[in-house]
Amino acid sequence: MRTRFILALAIAAVVITATVALAAPAANDDIADAIALTEGVEQRFSTIDATIEATEDVCDGDNTVWFTFTAATAGEYVAYATGSDHDTEIGWNDTVDNSTGACNDDAADSYDAVEEQRTFAPAEQEFVQMGVNSTDDVGTGGVGVTAVVAAADDFASATDLTFRSGATTAVIGLEFAGTEATEAGESVVCGLETLDAESAWLNFVAPESGSWMFESKSTESTDIAVYSGSSVGALSLLDCATVNRIAVVADLEAGSTYRIRIGLITTSEPVVVRAEPAPIPMTATLVDADGDGTSTDVGNFSDLAVVDGEPAVAYYDPTNQELRYATRSGGVWADTLVDADGDGTSTNVGRSLSIAILASGEPAVAYYDSTNQELRYATRSGGVWADTLVDADGDGTSTDVGGQPSLLVLASGEPAVAYYDSTNLELRFATRSGGVWTDALVDADGDGTSTSVGRHPGLVQFANGDLGVSYVDATNAQIRFARMTGGTWSDETVYTDADGNVPIGAGTVVDSVGNPVVAATDIGQGNHVLGWWNGTSWDIEWDNADRKLGELDFECSRPELLIDGGDTLFIPWTDCNLSGSIAMSTRDTNGNWRVYDIVAQVLDPTGPDYAGTRAVWTTREFGAAWLPDGRMAVTFQNDSDSTLWYAQDALKADAGPDAGSQTVANAVFDGSASSDAWGSIAKYAWSGAPAGCTVSGADSATPSVSCSEATTGDLTLTVTDTDGFTHSDTAGFEVAACDLSADPFTDVPASSFARDDVTCIYNLGVTTGTSLTTFSPGDNVTREQMAAFLSRLYKSMTGGDAPIVATPFTDVPAASFASDDIARIFGLGITTGTSSTTYSPGDDVSREQMAAFLSRLYKAATGSDAPIVATPFTDVPAASFASDDIARIFGLGITTGTSSTTFSPGDEVTRIQMAAFLARLFLAG
Description:
Shape: globular
Number of strands: 59
Radius of gyration: 34 Å
């Protein structure tokens, strides 16, 4: 038996990433300014500058802020705090001096707190007091109230853990009854540990693919485990934690259901369970702990680049007051001395630095010589470093020049550096030609009123060769941007801080259309300000970093700024004022911001946070860069032991998880889950068709596979993102066949493009031909023949006839062979006739009519419209009644047009052409 297969691999689902811009914490130091909480929706808190108001009843700390909660319905509720920088306490309060519950700071994770369960009547209000149990004067984190429900002991009756409207975290409160037990088939294995027998179950449907963090909070220790699977006896463990950890991190697939098991050691307290996208995970390695073997403090100023595909770090050794350089090969770091004496007289060199890679592939570093207060430049050749003077006197009057350099390799291959002249308080720029450095003034007076301008420059070059540099105007509390065109610098204001707080500048990047983007720390707003040139002016926005950065100063690090090919922005930054950790602000192309902590492989093996990881800690300048394989990398100093570390994240492009085997003609391949955490998917590539099969549209999102016989096999999807990074995944397929065994027609040549299609629709019962041995392939299709074809194909696709309904058509004789078929397609909504009372059964069918018929049949048979896709057809007017239908059947692969740019909508359809259209529709549906 000859068979013909067309497998359409369609994108059938969309991954929706809900990104909510976080608002900066409001001032709620006093109970009168308490912020309203909504059940299940967390608020951020900050206790910076919090004070004790008159008669305020506090617990261990005097840094408290206030919230209020009004119950929408009667029930049990619990208040909690999470993600704090310091040990927190939380309590229910009637008034400022009357605590109705204990100030609870005894969560399993001491940085979090869970208050006692409280019964509310409808519309009853209570205050929530949030404080820091610490000698530090600041704290940040999240605070919320959630309803408490009975814990579901059995897997089959698991409670759903879901997001409330407006929430960025899914949260639920559980109350254990004390009678929970381990049911049959329920595993209690967690590595070398054992999960608690008293357990409850939750279901969680992942709204987006990626890493998710689950945590359980109580005043008592809890267990937590995350599984995939549909029955209690057939679960796959993704991650688990016993009493030593409160959180787990698991990689989830959008739309899939996961099972969370919570075990409580005692049963006297409520448990709060949360799910949220995980902090950006990075794997950390030690770069250098001792410099040349004598250092006790190394790496507090560093910058990062990529040399020969591997990370390379230039950094300062404070113990020996020298500049060092480290590279990685085979996973092993090795460091060398770059410069220890500047021009031979220095005792302190390399504290402020910038690294770049020359056209030769060798590294170069611009850096500050603190002894001689001058700017120097070092390059490596053949493994040997050599350094030269760039500038020692600015315009001839300076005694201190070269701090905060920004090094760039120009398109010409020569280096250029922007830097600060501390003597004259101005921004300068130096270039090298023929080995000789020449320096020039960029800006000395800002808008004409400045006496201090030029700190923290960020230098870029545009595609046309022009240069740009961002910098700080300290006099006017501004971020400014200067452009060099034709050798002349001109400057302008990007942003002015209304409160006069001097920003901390960052580097500049260039977007995909050549516009500069500048980011800086706005210490007045307590987050980061972004300036994006729109071609005529600067658009200003804030990242809503959700942390008060009011005590940041120039001794702390400026933020870094990276951009990917899809114009998604990344701002790694140091939270020096609070925890000293590195965080990440990301902005997608829709303008949505999200802020994460960057977490790394455990640096302190006893730390319980983030399932065996901890936040990266640093209070010094650090570097950030893209690696060739798509990973983001950062360098940082671990303050706990003053050592230099390096961390890198996961690959960016993701083809999506395996779909498994499909047994329908139109298989859904899980390429629908293809995503890119940092950029966007630029290219699809399908490959690996089994023998006897060919792939068409292999570089599109919806290819097709044609096989000569019944086939089960795998296809591989490789996606490439806008930065050139790739990832691959596979799925199996098993498709239904179009039977080609009977083939009676002698007037359809074997060489005909649609020979198999005619045979296919004959075996389906869609046609019997024009005689026992003829099909009449060149004849035009009439409207009554079309009705018969459509009615019979509907039966083949669905397994049953459509109902016969009354029609208004007065021109269809009852004796017509297709009268019942016309009634059936009228009832299905496939036709409305040529007028309110006519069907015109003898008229020929045009190609645009054919498109409408087939598109409507697809909807009738499958229950939904085919998607409307862009077509190349220039001869289909947008006003045509069938323009959308033509786009739908083009997207389904039913037609490719009469040429690469034409569809010929008014042409009649022949019977051989219609056979091809009908067979393709059958296999597409």
